[in-house]
Amino acid sequence: MGFPKLETERLQLRELTLLDAETMFRYFSKESVIRYFGMDSFENIEQAKTTIQTFKNRYEEGSVFRWGIEKKGTGQLIGTCGFHLINHHHKRAEIGYELDDTYWGQGYASEALQAILAYGFETLQLIRIAAVVYVENKASQKLLSKAGFQEEGLLRKHMIQNGVAHDTILYSLLKEEWKK
């Protein structure tokens, strides 16, 4: 079948390849980008290569879809987005996304989010898509609320980053709420 490609007005969502490792390493090394990601910043390009390979392996297992977000016509990777913790039996998944901070505030995350929501609800036939967001990550909370996600509650000391446990907020969007 091959990895699904998604298109929006300004973006192409495509499979990540090892050719993306250098760009991914560059922005995953930025504290601003990974501050709320739930992992420490990359220290070498091998970590980017391993992450890309892990996304590929988990896609083949059916538990992860992680797209590279590329600006149309440039070939430039500006971030990634997708589903993890996919449960096909219960028709649910969690989403995640990050952008190189150079591209923040330009609507790219919202555009990519709408594309993967459509894929999740229409193609994967999910009935629930969730997101877990650091309490401090106001921009992501705003993005999810704007997309129709509902806040479900606080998950105390749910994510560890740089050795520190952080509270997160659980959001969800149900298929019947989508596009309302």
From TrEMBL:
- For this protein, the Enzyme Commission number is 2.3.1.128
MF term (GO), any? protein-N-terminal-alanine acetyltransferase activity
Record's signal peptide: none
Its cellular-component GO annotations read: cytoplasm
Query: What enzyme class is recorded for this protein?
Result: transferase
Q: Which UniProt keywords apply?
A: Acyltransferase, Transferase
- Please report the stretch or stretches of sequence annotated as the N-acetyltransferase domain: 11-176
KW Transcription (keyword) present: no
InterPro entries from the UniProt entry: Acyl_CoA_acyltransferase, GNAT_dom, N-acetyltransferase
Where, if anywhere, are coiled coils annotated?
none
* Protein name as it appears in the record: Ribosomal-protein-alanine acetyltransferase
Organism expressing this protein natively: Bacillus cereus (strain ZK / E33L)
The lineage, from the top, is:
Bacteria, Bacillati, Bacillota, Bacilli, Bacillales
